[in-house]
Amino acid sequence: MAKDFTVAIVGGGMCGLACTVGLSKSGIHVDVFEAGSKFEEVGAGVGLGPNALRALKGLGLYEAVLSRSDTPSPTFRQFLFLSGLGEHEVIYDYPRTADDLGLGIYRPVFFDAVVGLLDPSTVHFNKRCVSLTTTETTIAITFADGTTHEADLVIGADGIRSVARNFVVVDAMQKHVTFTNTVAYRGLIPLEDLEAAGLQMQLSTRPIALVGLNKHFVIYPIHGDKRINVVVFMSKRDIPPQPPLPSPWVTAASDGELQDQFQEWGRDARIIVDHMKASSKWSIHALNPPLASYCRGRVVLVGDAAHGMPPHLGAGAGQGFEDVFVLCELLKNDKVTKSNLEVPVTRVVQDALQAYTEVRAPRANWVLERTIEAGQIYESYQPGRETQEVTKLSNLWDPIWHHDLGVDVNRAVEMVSKHVRVS
Ligand SMILES: Cc1cc2nc3c(=O)[nH]c(=O)nc-3n(C[C@H](O)[C@H](O)[C@H](O)COP(=O)(O)OP(=O)(O)OC[C@H]3O[C@@H](n4cnc5c(N)ncnc54)[C@H](O)[C@@H]3O)c2cc1C
């Protein structure tokens, strides 16, 4: 049954698009406003754990994504941790379980799969949101081109530099966004080039993390196993998190700047960094301290806008898909209708968004904090230390991957039901 309220989504990244498809499938009128002139994803890989895949299933996106991925079914995705130095000995081999299956996918391929499910009339490009304001009956979005759009609800999916977040939390950029003192270099290397250079490490679809003091890499094959997705992290760990850096946060890396930093590392590590050509350099920011709430009035945040986190547990997009799944389940619930969305903002919509934030914020913020901890664990590794903290990682991943989203949805729906006005 078609719903009688309208939703506008600010930002057409992975989470904004997943949300657009999820809401459209539920008969909700949705428009997505993207600042760019087309949908664009960075040419790199993304790892999706079992929780992310369950959320995508719930949103009706899983089959399309799987059909374009490199493998016909999910594969074991737990990290193998190797020392970055010396002979790259095994530090921690995550135990294999039948449940730990995920996907590594080339981001543009993921995008193609999702865009293929969109109704093109819902998509509006060159629409950079500059502010949100409450009108008597709606939320109005003002764009940089001077135009406006009104909707009953606005979902901010505009990433870590979110403008929608300014409506939810005043001065959020200064109070919450910090530079983590980590930079990440991202590149894709043809496998044949590494083999020709004598790489000895055995690669599989499973990610390998090479760890060392204040540095680590994550590598896995992608795109028909022909290219290796590499992310090299370097951190300053003796200073506290800093205020957000000036723009741009992503730049082109200059030749040689990475190679000079890995002279002491093992042979395979040096082969990999030597082949990192035309890589991009990302200043990793995080919402730390995390936001206490992901909503205010009729505006709600999902994905990095709500909980931008470092990528050390490969969990950011997965948490965003969980947000989107819970939010879509709530908004498609029969109790949430326009008659219950009257002006001034009625309890039911506030309750729906409040229920969303009460269920999602504790979990996603917990994951955010664990990603910071994981980076510290990887980059404190030094050979010869008696206790390898890396073994603590099993306590970090399991609750992320094996969480029951159905319980969250039921809890949130129950919270809304308690307050629904009977007409
Ligand atoms: C090096 C690295 C590796 C990562 N690896 C993983 C991984 O393996 N697994 C994982 O789950 N996550 C990973 N992540 C995190 C993941 O990339 C993010 O969590 C995810 O991309 C967030 O999606 P999003 O849609 O919320 O935001 P974004 O991807 O940032 O999309 C935001 C969109 O909004 C648009 N926009 C911005 N401002 C405005 C505005 N004012 N008006 C309109 N539109 C606007 C942007 O153009 C963009 O299209 C990684 C991140 C990094 C940096």
TrEMBL record:
It holds the Pfam family FAD_binding_3. One of its GO terms (biological process) is secondary metabolite biosynthetic process. The keyword Nucleotide-binding does not apply. Keywords: FAD, Flavoprotein, Oxidoreductase. GO terms for molecular function: FAD binding; oxidoreductase activity. The keyword Ligase does not apply. Residues 5-332 form the FAD-binding domain. This is FAD/NAD(P)-binding domain-containing protein. It comes from Guyanagaster necrorhizus.
